[in-house]
Amino acid sequence: MPTRETVRIAAVSDVHYGKQSQGVMQALFSQIAERADVLVMPGDLTDYGLAEEARVLARDLTACLKIPIVAVLGNHDYESDESEEIVRVLTDAGVHVLDGDSVEIQGVGFAGVKGFAGGFGRGTLGPWGERAIKAFVQESVNEALKLESALARLKTAHRIALLHYAPVQGTVEGEPVEIFPYLGSSRLEEPINRYRVSAVFHGHAHRGAPEGKTATGVPVYNVAMPLLSRLHPDRPPFLILELPLNGEAPSPRPGTQLGDPLVRTA
Ligand SMILES: [Fe+2]
Ligand SMILES: [Fe+2]
Known about the structure:
With 266 residues, this protein is an alpha/beta fold. 26% of the residues lie in helices and 21% in strands. The strands form 2 sheets. The chain has a 6-stranded mixed sheet, with helices on one face.
């Protein structure tokens, strides 16, 4: 059983809400409300980036969830040039929408940024040649800098990073290798390691892998809902991370049963 020394963070990404989605996730949101203290939603909140879609999502969130919600936008949320209105709609609904900034909830610090593409490791695209290439790379660098400044502001014992794009290759494995460079960037990994983040949540790679690690061992969770649904059709498609707040090692959990969400301890 969770104790007062534990914060339970539920995570689900890529819900891709559309105009017709009213009510489709209410059952899931209600389960999250029962089992978690905070919900994080790392991007692709809407399908076509329409403010109207965000309004549908905001209605479902406020109808079912009284716990704090932290989100970042994903690439889909930019598709229709309505991202500012999407942020306004969700913020009005009480969601903390992060874009290079941070928020502290129940003693846990959350830093959020969308992130960007660019590739991993030795395959990382460099700023060389055409202006278009340099601009592309600069976008990736800027997102990493935004993440760094967001993390730098947090003084909490636990820091959680929220990204839409992947910071490591491990959690995009399973996608076609040709599109790995479009699914994330190693540039995002450096601040995560330097600020000793407790865990990273991201989405975007619908066919990637659910868990990976940075070079220094920071756990990285790909919580894209389509991925969790496919991997665990017998469980609700969200992850719960239990964070001990007293600095002790996480206590062992009883095995999860059918119908339980996935649970990880940090
Ligand atoms: Fe997505
Ligand atoms: Fe995406």
